[in-house]
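Batch job 17 of 40 flagged for manual review because the log was empty.
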Amino acid sequence: MRPPDDPRLALLADSYARLLGKPLIEPATDLAQTLWDAPCAIVAHGTESDPVFFYGNRLALEVFEIAFEAFTRLPSRYSAEPLAREERARLLERVTREGYIDDYAGIRISALGKRFRIEQAVVWNLIDRQGRLHGQAATFSRWTPLGPAMTEPNAASAVNL
């Protein structure tokens, strides 16, 4: 699959560099391809009242066991188990206040209902140079599968895989 060419990808990389003081990825002439092939999972959602993912790179899609087209129709809250959604909401509020966090760990769920724990994730605000918020993004390279699949897959499974 050719990686999506979305103008928000530049904002994703630029916001990370401005907020954290280091690049998300090595400088590249083809930003979309470099993000797509990054050795870490990268996801991002917009600012809708129920934010929907607009991006997931190749590795993120593998971890979440979902196709790009389905992932980008998925409200991001469905990446967490129902009981973990309140914790996730507190995390996103903290990111909104502080600009980013670099110490997140939590349980996530794939589209097929498989649970996994992410660790040392960085979550940051997608803020343009005028200070407008366009969403939030996350990256992680450490995850651990947890136990068997849930008996009832999450709502992500309702999106056509």
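Reviewer: the log was empty due to a logging misconfiguration, but the result itself is present. Strands lie at 41-45, 53-56, 100-109, 115-127, 133-140, 142-146. Unflagging and moving on to job 18.
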